[in-house]
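Structure first, sequence second, as always.
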C-alpha cells in the first residue's frame, strides 16, 4: 500500500507539471515517512542546510556554475553562429555535408559549454532551419540535431561527468580530469556513427552538398578564431595539468565574457547581469535537485539498498558481461523514467562499487558506460530532457520529436554495446598518457572474490553508530587531522615547522576522499578490542 501511495504521488506531481526538485523532494519525504521511522529527523530543516553546505565543499561541484554561466553567455552571443558557419565551410562539400557540419558544430560547442541542453539550443536554433532549407527531411533533421546535441554529455567538460564524479566515493571514486580524457574517444565514436548516417541520408538529398571555397573557409575561420580558442583553453588546460576542472570552469566563464562582450560585441555589457540572473536560476534549481537526491541516497542507505543489491549479485552468480548487460538495461529504463542527473546521483553510488569490487571493472570504464546511458536517458521518452528542449526549440509536438530520434537513438544504443565490452575505447587514451598498454581486456569471467571484513566484537558493534553520515565522517577526519601530535618525529612533521603546518610530504588541505578514508580508519581503530 505504501508503494502505491508513493507512485500515485509522483504521477500526480508529474501530471500537474511540477518542477523536478519538487518531485524529488516529495518522493524523498514520502520514502522516509512511509518506509522508515525517521520522520522527525526529516522535519529538521538543518538537514537540508547541512547537505547544501557539504555540497559547496566539493571542488568538482564548484565548476558547474561557471560552465552554466559560460553557456548562457555563449548562447546569447554569436559564438554558435560563427562555429556553425565554419563547420559548413569545412565539411559542407561532402554528401550530407550540412548535416555533418551540424554534428561538428555540436562537438565544438559542447567542448565549451559542457552542457547537452545548451548545445542543443545554441546549435539547433541555427542549423535546423538551414537543414530544412537545403531539402533534408524534417524528421531526420530533428532527430540528428537532437542526438548530436546530446553529445554534450560525453564531450569534456561535460557537466554529466562532473555529476558522476560527485556522486561516487571510495573505491569507485574517479578524477574528473581522467573521466574527461577517457570520454574523448567514445564521444568521437558516437559522432562518427551519426556522421555516417548523415552521409547516407545526404546521398538522396539533391541540395545536400555546398561548393567548397577556400576563401569562404578562411573568412569563416577568421570569424570563429576567438571562439575556437575557448575549447583549447578549457581542454588544453585540463589535459595539460594547468587547471583543475573548477579552474577550467572559471577560465571558460572569463573567456566567454571577454570574447562575447569585449571582442565580438554580440553581448552588451549591460545585458550581462540579466544573463547571469538566468544562469543563477538554473544553478539554483540544479543545487536543489542534487541536495534532495542526496537525501534520497540517505533513505537508500537507511534501508540498506546497497547491501540488498550486493546480496542479490552474490546469489545470482552473474558473470561480468551478464552484470554489465543487466546494469545497462536497468539504466536505460531508469533514464527513460527519471531525470538523468537524479538517476546518476541515486544509482551511481549503488552500482559502481558492485561493478568494481565484485567484477573487477575499471572505475573509469564503468563511469563512461554510465554516462553514455545517461545520454540515452536524455533522448529516451517519456522523461527525456532533450526531447522537451527540442520540442520547444524546433516548435514541434513532443510525440513528433520522440519519433524523430528513434533511428539515431538506435545508433547510440549500438555504440553503448561496443563501449561496454571494449574498455580500450575508454581506457586506451589514459594508458597512452601514462605509458601503459593500450589494449585492455574486458573481465568476461565470473565475479572477483572479495574477502569479507573481519567482524568486530559484539561490544564494539553495540557501542559504535551503525552508519556514519558524510558530514560526521568529514568532521571526525578533520578533528583527527587537526589534533596536535605528541611526538613531532613520530607524526612525520618537521620539528622546526611553524605550529599548524602540514607534515612534510603531505598537502596542507585534505581532499574529501582523504578525509573520509581517514575517518573510516579512525572508526575501525575505535571499534578494535
Amino acid at each position: 500500500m505504501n508503494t502505491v501511495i508513493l507512485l500515485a504521488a509522483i504521477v500526480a506531481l508529474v501530471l500537474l507539471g511540477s518542477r523536478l526538485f519538487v518531485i524529488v523532494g516529495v518522493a524523498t519525504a514520502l520514502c522516509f515517512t512511509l518506509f522508515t521511522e525517521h520522520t522527525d529527523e526529516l522535519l529538521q530543516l538543518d538537514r537540508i542546510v547541512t547537505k547544501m553546505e557539504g555540497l559547496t565543499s566539493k571542488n568538482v561541484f564548484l565548476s558547474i556554475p561557471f560552465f552554466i554561466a559560460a553557456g548562457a553567455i555563449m548562447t546569447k552571443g554569436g559564438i554558435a553562429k560563427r562555429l556553425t558557419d565554419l563547420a559548413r565551410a569545412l565539411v559542407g562539400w561532402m554528401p550530407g555535408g550540412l548535416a555533418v557540419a551540424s554534428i561538428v558544430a555540436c562537438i565544438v560547442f559542447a567542448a565549451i559549454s559542457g552542457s547537452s541542453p545548451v548545445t542543443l539550443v545554441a546549435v539547433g536554433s541555427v542549423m535546423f532551419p538551414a537543414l530544412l532549407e537545403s531539402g533534408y527531411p524534417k524528421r531526420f533533421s530533428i532527430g540528428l540535431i537532437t542526438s548530436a546535441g546530446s553529445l554534450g554529455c560525453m564531450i569534456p567538460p561535460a557537466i554529466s561527468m562532473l555529476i558522476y564524479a560527485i556522486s561516487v566515493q571510495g573505491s569507485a571514486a574517479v578524477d574528473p580530469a581522467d573521466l574527461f580524457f577517457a570520454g574523448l574517444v567514445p564521444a568521437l565514436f558516437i559522432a562518427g556513427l551519426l556522421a555516417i548516417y548523415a552521409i547516407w541520408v545526404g546521398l538522396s538529398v539533391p541540395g545536400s552538398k555546398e561548393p567548397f571555397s577556400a576563401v569562404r573557409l578562411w573568412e569563416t575561420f577568421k570569424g570563429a578564431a576567438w571562439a575556437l580558442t575557448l575549447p583549447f583553453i578549457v581542454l588544453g588546460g585540463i589535459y595539460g595539468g594547468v587547471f583543475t576542472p573548477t579552474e577550467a570552469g572559471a577560465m571558460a566563464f572569463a573567456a566567454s565574457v571577454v570574447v562575447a562582450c569585449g571582442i565580438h560585441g554580440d553581448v552588451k555589457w549591460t545585458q550581462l547581469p540579466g544573463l547571469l540572473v538566468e544562469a543563477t536560476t538554473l544553478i539554483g534549481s540544479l543545487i536543489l535537485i542534487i541536495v534532495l537526491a542526496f537525501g534520497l541516497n540517505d533513505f537508500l542507505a537507511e534501508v540498506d539498498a546497497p547491501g540488498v543489491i550486493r546480496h542479490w549479485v552474490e546469489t545470482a552468480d552473474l558473470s561480468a558481461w551478464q552484470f554489465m548487460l543487466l546494469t545497462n538495461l536497468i539504466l536505460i529504463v531508469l533514464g527513460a523514467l527519471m531525470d538523468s542527473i537524479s538517476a546518476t546521483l541515486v544509482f551511481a553510488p549503488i552500482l559502481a562499487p558492485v561493478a568494481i569490487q565484485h567484477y573487477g571493472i575499471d572505475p573509469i570504464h564503468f563511469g563512461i558506460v554510465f554516462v553514455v546511458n545517461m545520454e540515452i536517458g536524455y533522448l529516451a521518452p517519456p522523461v527525456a530532457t532533450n526531447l522537451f528542449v527540442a520540442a520547444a526549440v524546433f516548435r514541434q509536438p513532443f510525440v513528433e520529436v520522440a519519433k524523430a530520434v528513434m533511428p539515431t537513438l538506435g545508433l547510440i544504443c549500438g555504440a553503448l554495446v561496443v563501449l561496454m565490452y571494449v574498455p580500450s575505447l575508454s581506457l586506451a587514451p589514459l594508458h597512452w598518457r601514462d605509458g601503459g598498454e593500450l589494449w585492455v581486456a574486458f573481465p568476461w569471467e565470473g565475479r572477483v572474490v572479495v574477502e569479507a571484513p573481519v567482524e568486530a566484537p559484539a561490544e564494539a558493534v553495540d557501542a559504535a553508530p551503525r552508519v556514519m553520515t558524510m558530514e560526521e565522517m568529514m568532521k571526525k577526519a578533520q578533528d583527527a587531522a587537526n589534533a596536535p601530535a605528541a611526538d613531532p618525529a613520530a607524526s612525520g612533521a618537521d620539528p622546526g615547522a611553524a605550529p599548524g603546518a602540514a607534515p612534510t610530504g603531505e598537502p596542507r588541505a585534505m581532499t574529501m576522499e582523504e578525509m573520509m578514508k581517514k575517518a573510516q580508519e579512525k572508526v575501525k581503530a575505535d571499534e578494535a578490542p
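Margin note: The CA atoms of residues 424 and 439 lie 5 Å apart.
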